[in-house]
Amino acid sequence: MMTVDQESYETNDGKDYIDGPIALRFKGAWNPTRGDAWADLCEGEGTDEVWRQVFPASGGPPGLVKKAMVTAGTAEVLLDSCRRFARDCVKAETVVAGRGSDWSAFDRKTFVYAECEGEIHVQPALDCGRV
């Protein structure tokens, strides 16, 4: 989504490393083509067709991608966008993950959306810095 009006921008303001103004600044520097399926992943022109070719629809022909994982943290401003992409485009099954999770919940899933409790957008980089 090309806007910052999703609820997670407000809910997670101050928790994440990025916020609405920073996201808009990145977008301005990038200068994407509005409506392009690769710039506006969920609302761009032709996105339904693009994602049907990439990810298989149930009962439909196989897609280009056989297995995928979308990840997001519940404390990131992009949470609503990630949820929508995972649900509507990837058709992923949601698994909520946190410390102490049973990781077998990911077994044998081909398209999964991992929603990580309390994590932010750059959490993997922060975790690597703690090692």
UniProtKB/TrEMBL annotation:
Superkingdom as given in the UniProt entry: Eukaryota
Protein name per its UniProtKB record: Uncharacterized protein
